[in-house]
Write a structure and sequence with these properties.
Helices cover 56% and strands 18% of the residues. By secondary structure, the chain is an alpha+beta fold. The structure holds ligand L7CU2Q4V. It comes from Monopterus albus.
Length: 357
């Protein structure tokens, strides 16, 4: 014998919710045909473990597609109304079937349901507005990063091309006047590079703050203190090697970032950005260390930046002591950044491989 389960119902403007009181329901069949719903399942209901069945003739047309979800305690059915609106009752007959009752857990009267719709609408509008704001911020950020990367790319390309052409034309002689011909452009690019520390610190890009600080402070120390403030260093060939090694990576790194701004990549460029630091970084650090070592006797002689001691002690502390400490810091910085770049490389090529699989 088939039995009828208890069915609770509630409505919204768009849909009907039915809750069928059946525990551990199995073999559930829910059919909607010509506005009538037929339910059949086995489960544990008011009359114990049995086959349960019911039929409902809806008051108004409904859509034929129906969704149902069973939990351990009940089966929840959602039927969509053909036309949005409020029904004065669920079924066509005026006397409701005995097994049907309002679902007070979900029950709303018409005005409450309208309020719910309004709230939903407001929530949707708020979400849309915040998405618009976010999109605005993203496009502003992308525009800013693109322009920044473009300026740096142009700056470092000018430096690299200029030095290469001069090397071809003037040969070894070009090594001695790098500072005079290139330093203004390098000052500009390296001052701008401070933006990279801010970008990392404020989360504009996903780079590490410490590696960015080491990179920018390290280079600017060499550029402004060792080269910029010591005239005797201006015509040393080491300036050529430092500037050339710095710009050799940047002519690949910045275009790589420019493409990244538009979620695009060119595989060769990605490979170059994440590979050529392997020889360049140690060589660049070595060239910087040579510059520091060459500047030590000059600082000793000129007493530039020396720290005066109280009169009772006499003399002053030469800046060269700071430079000795800096040489140690350089190798610590080199280690931190090599490790960081190695991790970035591994991450980049690992994710790429995974995506390809
Ligand atoms: C306070 C104490 C200071 C003490 C100082 C001590 C001195 C230490 C001296 C150390 C020696 C320095 C030697 C050095 O000067 C020598 C040379 O430079 S030689 C030349 C070779 N050099 C290089 O190869 C280094 C080049 N520089 C860098 O790679 C970066 O500056 C570095 C911070 C080291 C690493 O970059 P980052 O952490 O940003 O890694 P990614 O490039 O992989 O970027 C991560 C993600 O962020 C996105 N991103 C980053 N920047 C931008 C941007 N401008 N525009 C758009 N997108 C950007 C990037 O796309 C990555 O995104 P995703 O993760 O989605 O792929």
């Amino acid at each position: 014998m088939t039995l009828t389960p208890l069915v609770y119902w509630a409505q919204r403007h768009e849909e009907i919710f039915l809750r069928v009181e059946l525990t551990d329901a199995q073999n559930i069949v829910v059919d909607v045909h010509e506005n009538s719903l037929h339910f059949r399942a086995q489960g544990h209901g008011a009359k114990g473990q049995n086959e349960y069945d019911f039929r409902l003739e809806f008051l108004l047309p409904v859509k034929p597609e129906v969704t149902h979800k069973s939990t351990q305690r009940q089966v929840n059915i959602t039927v969509r109304k053909e036309q949005s609106g409020w029904w004065e009752r669920l079924v066509i007959q005026e006397r409701k079937p005995a097994f049907l009752a309002p679902d007070f857990d979900r029950w709303l009267d018409e005005s409450d349901a309208e309020m719910e719709i309004r709230e939903k609408e407001e929530r949707r509008n708020r979400l849309k507005a915040s998405r618009h704001k976010e999109e605005g911020f993203v496009s502003l950020k992308t525009g800013f990063l693109f322009v920044y990367n473009l300026v740096q790319f142009l700056g470092f390309s000018w430096i690299f091309v200029n030095m290469t052409v001069r090397l071809f034309i003037f040969g070894q002689d070009s090594l001695y006047d790098t500072f005079h011909t290139i330093s203004d452009a390098m000052f500009l690019c390296q001052v701008l590079a401070a933006v990279e520390v801010l970008n990392a610190a404020f989360g504009v890009v996903r780079s590490g703050v410490v590696p960015a600080v080491i990179q920018v402070v390290g280079r600017n120390f060499i550029l402004f203190i060792i080269f910029g403030s010591v005239e005797e260093m201006h015509n040393k060939p080491v300036v050529f090697f430092v500037f050339y090694l710095w710009s050799a990576i940047e002519i690949f790194r910045y275009p790589f970032y420019m493409l990244a701004c538009f979620n695009t990549e060119w595989k060769t460029l990605t490979w170059l950005r994440y590979t050529i630091w392997i020889p360049l970084y140690p060589l660049g650090t070595l060239a910087e260390a040579v510059a520091v070592i060459q500047s030590i006797p000059i600082f000793d002689e000129t007493k530039l930046f020396s720290i005066p001691l109280p009169k009772a002690i006499g003399t002053s502390v030469s800046f060269s002591y700071i430079l000795h400490i800096y040489l140690l810091l350089m190798f610590l910085g080199l280690f931190i950044n090599l490790r960081h770049l190695y991790k970035q490389r591994k991450k980049r090529f690992r994710t790429k491989k995974r995506k390809a699989n």
